[in-house]
């Protein structure tokens, strides 16, 4: 059985509240050929984050850098990693002990892993580690690169911490984009799908994703629609396949505000790919989707605020 070295990369910024538990969960993996890399992205907490990381000594590899955002920290970790496979662990999330072992076991059952990315399931926890019960879509199965492109555009993003990614994927599809602050992981998974990578997705929950008031994504959520629009434009400019362009236009109906949608449809001639009837159907579906999402988020915010 092949046992490649797996690099678990933990980017952190002012993460003293949870970093110790997170590193412990990485070191507790039942799969042994691992290295744990912690990248301190210029924390400004008086050395608290650095002190927690340094107490692990040579059990981890520790790097410090000037603050540049999570993408820059992840990219430094990728540059420093010695492993053949990359696994991202946010500084406030946790792995169960079987996470890496489960994914390597799946790899060893496959005929070819040269262009394969694996994803497992996730559970949600609150700031003190208590389970959060939410209705969530759990997708599983083998996705071709085209199928994953459609899924990422029209269904949902994959949790970055649930993935196991071959290092060569970053060489072929690029690193985490530093010009995005909120959707950088979604952008990279789309690029990897476009680079021909297939995805094996399971629902086994080997990641505990923490929901808490200090999350960076909550503080900068207002940039999401701006970045999403920019990414749609970039895709429409670079994609030559009419079928993939059509998928992007369908995603625009699902995700963009009406004024943005209409402007992009006009500028990039989306009407040539979507019939009037399909546009009306997508518009109605988008309205119902966003109404339901708004109600759901309101209920969850009241319950777990």
Would you give an account of this structure?
This protein is an alpha/beta fold and 305 residues long. It has twelve helices and ten strands. The chain has helices at residues 19-27, 48-54, 70-80, 99-108, 145-154, 167-173, 184-194, 216-219, 224-238, 242-255, 258-267, 276-304; strands at residues 6-12, 34-41, 61-65, 85-88, 94-95, 116-125, 131-132, 141-143, 163-166, 198-210. Strands 1, 2, 3, 4, 5, 6, 7, 8, 9 and 10 form a ten-stranded mixed beta sheet that branches. α6 packs across α7 and α9 (224-238) runs antiparallel to α10. It is globular, with a radius of gyration of 20 Å. The model has no long low-confidence stretch (mean pLDDT 92).
Strand content: 15-25%
Biggest sheet character: 10 strands, mixed
Structural class: alpha/beta
**Number of helical segments?**
12
Order of helices and strands: EHEHEHEEHEEEHEHHEHHHHH
Termini Cα gap: 46 Å
Work out the radius of gyration: 20 Å
Could you report the average pLDDT, rounded to the nearest whole number? 92
| Low-pLDDT segments | none
Overall morphology: globular
Number of strands: 10
Share in helix: 40-55%
């Amino acid at each position: 059985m092949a046992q490649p070295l797996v690099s678990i990369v933990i980017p952190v910024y002012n993460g003293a509240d949870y970093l110790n538990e997170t590193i412990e969960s990485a070191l507790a993996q039942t799969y042994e050929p691992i290295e744990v890399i912690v990248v301190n992205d210029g924390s400004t907490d008086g050395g608290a984050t650095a002190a927690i990381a340094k107490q692990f000594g040579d059990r981890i590899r520790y790097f410090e850098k000037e603050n540049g955002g999570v993408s820059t920290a992840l990219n430094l970790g990728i540059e420093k990693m010695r492993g053949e496979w990359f696994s991202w662990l946010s500084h406030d999330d946790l792995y169960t002990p079987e996470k890496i072992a489960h994914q390597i076991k799946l790899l060893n059952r496959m005929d070819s892993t040269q262009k394969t990315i694996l994803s497992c399931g996730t559970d949600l926890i609150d700031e003190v580690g208590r389970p959060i019960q939410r209705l969530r879509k759990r997708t599983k199965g083998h996705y071709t690169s085209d199928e994953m492109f459609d899924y990422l555009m029209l269904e949902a993003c994959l949790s970055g911490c649930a993935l196991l990614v071959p290092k060569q994927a970053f060489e072929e599809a690029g690193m985490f984009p530093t010009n995005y602050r909120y959707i950088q992981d979604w952008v990279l998974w789309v690029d990897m799908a476009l680079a021909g990578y297939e995805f094996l997705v399971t629902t086994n929950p080997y990641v505990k994703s923490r929901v808490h008031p200090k999350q960076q994504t909550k503080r900068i959520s207002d940039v999401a629609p701006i970045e999403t629009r920019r990414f749609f434009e970039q895709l429409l400019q670079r994609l030559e396949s009419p079928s993939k362009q059509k998928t992007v236009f369908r995603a625009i109906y699902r995700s963009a505000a009406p004024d943005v949608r209409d402007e992009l449809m006009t500028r990039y001639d989306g009407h040539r790919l979507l019939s009037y009837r399909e546009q009306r159907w997508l518009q109605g579906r988008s309205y119902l989707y966003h109404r339901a999402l708004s109600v759901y988020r309101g209920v969850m915010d009241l319950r777990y605020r």
